[in-house]
Model the fold of this input.
Amino acid sequence: MTLCIEVYLPLISKNFNPNAVQLPRTGQTTCYDTAGAVISCAGTGQDGEIQAGVIWPDPRFAVSGDCVTDKLTGVMWSKNGNPDGSLTWQGALDYVASINSGAGLCGYHDWRLPNVNELESLVNAGMQDSAAWLNTQGFYNVTGPYWSSTSFTFHPYNAWNVSVDGVLFNYWNKTSSYSRTWPVRGATTPPARLWKTGQTACYNTVGTIIPCAGTGQDGEIQAGVTWPDPRFTVSGECVTDQLTGLMWSKNGNLPAGHLNWQGALNCIAAINSGAGLCGYHDWRLPNRKELRSLIDFSQYSPALPLNHPFNYVQSPYYYWSSTTGPLPYTNSAWIVESLEGGMIGLGKNNPAPVWPVRTKQGGP
Done:
């Protein structure tokens, strides 16, 4: 008998898009029990065991003068991770604009404030402090949190912040001067291309929609891979995301209910050892990058692409990932909020929905 009281299920389809983005690994290679102690990974189904995604280049970063290129994502960053101290959101946008209208940086004049996907790509989920790690990878002055160019759609007088130490992924009032500015530009054709956030509108600091031209906001730049249209393909009770090649259950609440983190891992193991789902027995709990790939930062409640085909998505709830939080918070795991798209750590004994995923591995 499959002892699964509550489950959500993600996967991929027959009409696979060969141009789909390849999500990178999170960086986590260790496994932990509910109390946060290190355990053997074998058979756990955790991110540290599965390590789904593109392997990182070694070395991952290439330094050239005052700039650093991420060979995993192809994005170029300022080597100085805090070139102008703490600024308001508009101050951050204005600072990057001043680089482009002035002397430039590393010979380029097309710098921008990074969007949420670009900032999150720098987090190493295998490190206690990604900021400290980045300071050993060719960068300096990496601290945080950092302003993104992406507004928080529901209350657009806020903008998304990412703390690359790995702890914070949330939004702040745009008039706050607590966050830093980290210029970014362009992308080559890397092994793990980043994708558009979904945001197409621009907002001022009080949250009013404004023309995008010249703002430097995410809604104007729209950096990243364009989403396929249609993005999702439905096959029976499963849905393939043509952007990422991942397959998900059409039912986002199958059946209703929540589980603690270990219960979520056990539930998916029971699916694989039992009847399976859509004919497959290689489901897993998605890692933090896989869950985040579903988020549309132009939407709210749920923060999923408009006209998505999923049923019974749990909003305002959050979904478990298979990725444990950073030290010393290894008794928590990362969750992604379906209401607004945020990401925080949640104690592993708490209840949350489960949304299994699988990768196309030579299947139909």
Notes: The longest strand covers residues 318-324. Residues 1-16 have pLDDT under 50 and may be disordered. Residues 56-227 form one domain.
